Amino acid sequence: MNILVIGAGYVGLTMAVCFSELGHSVICIDKQKNKINTLLKGKLTTFEKNLDKLLIKNLKSKRLKFDISMKNVANADVVMISVGTPFDDSLNRYDQNAIYCVAKNITKFINKYTIIVIKSTVEVGTCDRVEQIIKEANPKADFDVVSIPEFLREGSAVYDFFNPDRIIMGTESQHAKDVIKKLYKPLKKKKFVFTSRCSSELIKCASNSFLATKIHFINEMADFCEKVGGNVYDVAHGMGLDKRIGVEFLKTGPGYGGGCLPKDTKALASLGKRVGANFNLIEAVICGNENRIKSFATKTLSFVENIKNAKIAFLGLAFKSGTDDCRFSPAIDIVLHLINKGTKVCVYDPAATKNARSVLKTKVSYAKNEYEAAKDADIMVFATEWKQFRSLDWAKLSKIVNSKIIFDMRNIVDRQEALKYGFECYKTGC
Ligand code: UDX
Q1: The dihedral of CA 156, 160, 163, 165: what is its sign?
Q2: pLDDT tens digit string along 55-97?
């Protein structure tokens, strides 16, 4: 099949590469010429495990192409819109202008039956609006607008594409269903869920809001464990083995972040307010998550309050491991709190330093590795759960730090091992 993906962001690019790997002929367009030129050279514009090899392989096979022109709509059986829908704080909703603009621009190129798939995370009712825009601009256009929300996680997007828990298809059109089923046919394991467009649009937002709630629950449980005794890791494990609860998303930490959970929770809560169906639970989760980030900064400072000109070695800046993404990263917010209080901070992240630098600028110093960051430090803070932080050389670290204090926000440090070298290790919820 001929697929056109509009938007070479993290979701669009992953989809374009993976659909071409499934054997389809894919063109991915983006208005940023620089990005397209980089991709044409076989270089990734985002950090994503295993995507680089597939990009090169499919470029070579010519199943995957990159371009900037909307004219490519004319040859496509399926057009996937995957442009950004950032949260607009002044309007308290997603900014969907990019989607509506694409809808207007593609209209004149639709010359045969075409399926328009909305992949971006959108407010409920968006597919209806896109359909209306296209119909108004070109009443003769033969098309269906379908909602297929994307559930890819950064850091495991390729795996998630080939192993989806479910493929949600929001459409009433049997023809569209048949074409989309063909599109996903080469995927070995798949479970389709057919529903209305509105329900499909809601499933994405509801799923991310539920995940955020799960994380916030375990974070509050961690605080509770610290007060009453108990180990949140064991509590989460014991709870998660109940299939109705599930083990995933029960890891405590400094709060959830990233490009999706913060914005989707906010979008759901604000839509609830607008339609008179308040989401009190989600509002509490949003507020609790924001407070958690502040309280982790305060806690960090409390460990060094008696040390004059304390230096903090801050390890991990990405919103989670396996990505270079710092959008709404709790780690970054905590660092900002620390520097606002006049504390000296030296940061290190295996992948996200470049992105972090655009926010933190010259307000912190940047280390090349964990050991450089820890030199003369009065506390080592672990804020992102990078695998390499689990196997540090504590003997070496014990010789270079100023004070042997660890604040392990993600519970990744082997406390017994660190203890052997005289470190005091403060964990979260245990
Ligand atoms: C999320 C959804 O999981 C995905 O389905 C959707 O398509 C996009 O949004 P992503 O933003 O990549 O994916 O990150 P995710 O793995 O969901 O983690 C979000 C945040 O929650 C991170 O800050 C992470 O550190 C935190 N988290 C996650 C926890 O604190 N504990 C957990 O147990 C899981």
Answers
A1: positive
A2: 999 999 999 999 999 999 999 999 999 999 999 999 999 999 9
Threshold 0.90, pTM exceeds = yes
Pocket mutation for ligand 1, best pick of 250, 256, 286, 327 (most atoms within 8 Å of C-beta): 256
CATH number of the domain enclosing 183? 3.40.50.720
Specify whether 239 is located in the same domain as 184: no
Domain edge (last residue) among 151, 169, 195: 195
191 and 201 share one domain: no
Judged against a pLDDT cut of 90, whether residue 333 lies above it is answered with: yes
Give the tokens for residue 172: 């009433």
205 among known catalytic residues? no
| Protein residue closest via CA to atom 31 of ligand 1 | 251
Same domain as 255, residue 176:
no
Cα distance between residue 415 and residue 403, in whole Å: 16
- Look at residues 381, 301, 401, 290 and name the one whose alpha carbon lies nearest to residue 342: 301
Domain edge (last residue) among 180, 195, 210: 195
Contact 215, 292 (CB under 8 A): no
How many independent structural domains does the chain possess? 2
> What's the rounded Cα separation, in Å, for the pair 314 and 349?
9
Predicted local confidence at residue 189, as pLDDT = 87
Tell whether ligand 1 has an atom less than 6 A from the beta carbon of residue 322: no
The answer, yes or no, to whether residue 419 has pLDDT greater than 90, is yes
Give the whole-number percent of the chain exceeding pLDDT 70: 100
Which ligand 1 atom minimizes the distance to the CA of 258? 11
Residues 364, 342: one domain? yes
Give me the domain span that covers residue 206: 197-430
Q: Are residues 310 and 365 located together in one domain of the fold?
A: yes
3-class secondary structure, 79: strand
Q: Residue 303: name the closest of 402, 217, 399, 417 by CA.
A: 402
Q: What's the pLDDT score for residue 307?
A: 92
Do 202 and 163 share a structural domain? Answer: no
Same domain, 145 and 183: yes
Do 133 and 203 lie in one domain? The reply is no
Helix (H/G/I), strand (E/B), else coil: 198: helix
Mean pLDDT for 202-219 is: 98
Query: In sequence order, which ranges of 174-311 are alpha helices (DSSP H)?
Result: 174-184, 197-228, 232-240, 261-275, 280-303
